[in-house]
Design goal:
Elements (H helix, E strand, L loop, with lengths): L3 E4 L2 E4 L4 E7 L5 E7 L6 E7 L4 E3 L7 E4 L6 E6 L8 E8 L7 E2 L3 E6 L1
Parallel strand pairs: 2-11
Antiparallel strand pairs: 1-3, 3-8, 4-5, 4-9, 5-6, 7-8, 9-10, 9-11
């Protein structure tokens, strides 16, 4: 099965930036990021396919950029203009094929202070 390893989470002041990284144990068809804050549903952040098609959640569009899947095993999430409401556990996800099950990383905490 696929293993996903995330890094880059931490504490940052509002208005700052963070860059998350995720590396998979095998070549992936699509990869992306979701987040979940306490008491909230898991929310789409961004996804990217092997062909380069991207999809962003409305709450992060224009501030976050997903990239890197051209390497087939790595995806990045550049987070800019961070807000306190961006505070959440961020999970890397990926599929090794169109019909393959989704794999998930362990999550990395992102905390944005006011």
């Amino acid at each position: 099965q696929v293993q996903l390893v995330e890094s880059g989470g931490g504490l940052v002041q509002a208005g700052g930036s963070l860059r998350l990284s995720c590396t998979s144990s095998r070549s992936m068809f699509s990869m992306g990021w979701y987040r979940q804050a306490p008491g909230k549903q898991r929310e789409l952040v961004a996804t990217i396919t092997r062909a380069g098609a991207t999809n962003y959640g409305d709450s992060v569009k224009g501030r976050f950029i997903v990239s890197g899947i051209n390497a087939r095993t790595t995806v990045y999430l550049q987070m800019n203009s961070l807000k306190p409401e961006d505070t959440a556990v961020y999970y890397c996800s990926g599929r090794s094929g169109m019909t393959a099950p989704t794999s998930w990383g362990q999550g990395t905490q992102v905390t944005v202070s006011a």
